[in-house]
Amino acid sequence: MPGKAGPEGYAPNAEGPIAGKAGSHKITAPPQTRREPSMSQEARYSRMVPELRKANLVEATLVCLKRHGFQGASIRKISAEAGVSVGLISHHYSGKDELVAEAYMAVTGRVMGLIREAMAQAAPNARERLSAFFRASFCAELLDPQLLDAWLAFWGAVKTAEAINQVHDHSYGEYRNELGRLLSELAREEAWQAFDADLAAISLSALLDGLWLESGLNPGTFTPEQGVQICEAWVDGLQAGGRRRFTLTEGC
């Protein structure tokens, strides 16, 4: 989870699938109604501030990814969902890949924002902030089925679209760096020697990704509380001696 905390100009308080603070709005797509653009809609869109224009297109993109998948979510379908012309979208974006990459960046930025808000409210030690990270990762907002569906569509496009691949690398680098920083702080607080926090962060990130994927495909497999429990057990194992598996070797 996968840099920036969101695309430049993105309005976090605008109404939409990625708007609002944790608990106040769900990250969810708007009602799935089809509409054709009209001149009045085009005029309203042109009068929107840039931040709202982006939020409106991100909403429409998420709806189309949910409904049609990446391959089926054409610019024409996205423009119809947003209520604007194909030409207007083409004026702002070079193509579908760039628009989907923008939506991916917006969603990952919101995810990291929610996680950081949770950590900021935790006790000022690494173990408690890791626990806050886990609780935020399994909050209702981030486990919303429509968000997870969009996330699966993003992941499916990573290997086929360079713009989306770049956003993926950027956002996941940010995500792993956050985990690595927390694990480095934990190692300092507990005086672990030669601990490879970067490798441990890859391991923990993979665990979280796997749980997110399983939740998206089979929501009944485990509860959010059990997801947190699994991650806490991973850190408990690290503290109980598993950290030796992440020892820096000479020359690294």
- The run of helices and strands is HHHHHHHHHH
Judged by helices, strands and strand pairing, the structural class is mainly alpha
Q: What is the CA-CA span between the terminal residues? A: 26 Å
Mean pLDDT: 82
Q: What is the count of β-strands?
A: 0
| Low-confidence runs | 2-34
Characterise the protein shown here.
With 252 residues, the protein is mainly alpha-helical. It is 64% helix and 0% strand. The chain contains 10 helices and no strands. The chain has helices spanning 39-47, 50-72, 75-82, 86-92, 96-120, 126-137, 145-157, 162-189, 197-217, 224-239. α6 (126-137) runs antiparallel to α10 (224-239). The protein starts with 38 loop residues before the first helix and ends in a 13-residue tail after the last helix. The model is unreliable at 2-34 (pLDDT under 50).
Q: What is the topology?
A:
Layout: H1 39-47, H2 50-72, H3 75-82, H4 86-92, H5 96-120, H6 126-137, H7 145-157, H8 162-189, H9 197-217, H10 224-239
Helix pairs in contact: 2-3, 2-5, 2-7, 5-6, 5-8, 6-8, 6-10, 7-9, 8-9
